[in-house]
Amino acid sequence: MKRLIAALAIASALSGCGYNDFQRLDEQSQAAWSEVLNQYQRRADLVPNIVATVKGEAQFEQDTLTRVIEARAKATSIQATPELINDPQAFNKFQQAQGELSGALSRLMVVAERYPQLQANQGFRDLRVTLEGTENRITVARNAYIKTVQDYNVLARSFPTNLTAKVFSYAPKPNFTVQNEAQISTPPQVDFSQPAPAARP
């Protein structure tokens, strides 16, 4: 009887100290992270088809294609293990690689607009639509991950659940950040001292 009472007391203490909440939120954050990886993989799988289609345009800038290929290779070379979401340094490296691929793909699409034949290619248009849809899915998946990590980190830092976090080594998880935070937080320079060009008659 004493063992049963002790077991009930321990179970009650664990549930009151946030232990079960840590388990739930940890599982949710891992599931959300898996969906982020799923969408990044979907994008990486599109890249070879996009590159192959663009290569059909003989005059297309080789440098732009090379950057996309290299960025994809770098992004897919990082092993996205479940431990990655508990390692801020590895997480940041992964995020930077994905950001480089995003930037390279954006430049590719901008350059592609200069090629009417490429724009008229139905296969390229379909790939472009699929890529845009995938980028939207990545945004949705990242937002879901950000929310679950926020909930987890609040629990890990709040009293009294922060005591449980320390006992069981539940460290706060890294979250997505804006890569160019310093750049976008600087207000744009606007100079009205230069007169506007005169309108043509």
Q: What is this entry, summarized?
A:
The longest helix is centred in the N-terminal third of the chain and has 37 residues, at 19-55.
Keywords:
elongated, 8 helices, mainly alpha, disordered C terminus
Structural features, described:
The chain is an all-alpha fold and 201 residues long. It is elongated and about 80 Å long. The longest helix has 37 residues, at 19-55. It starts with a helix and ends in a 16-residue tail after the last helix. The chain is built from eight helices and no strands. Helix 3 packs antiparallel against helix 4 (88-112).
Task: Produce the secondary structure layout.
Blueprint: H1 2-16, H2 19-55, H3 62-77, H4 88-112, H5 116-120, H6 122-157, H7 161-167, H8 181-185
Helix pairs in contact: 2-3, 2-6, 3-4
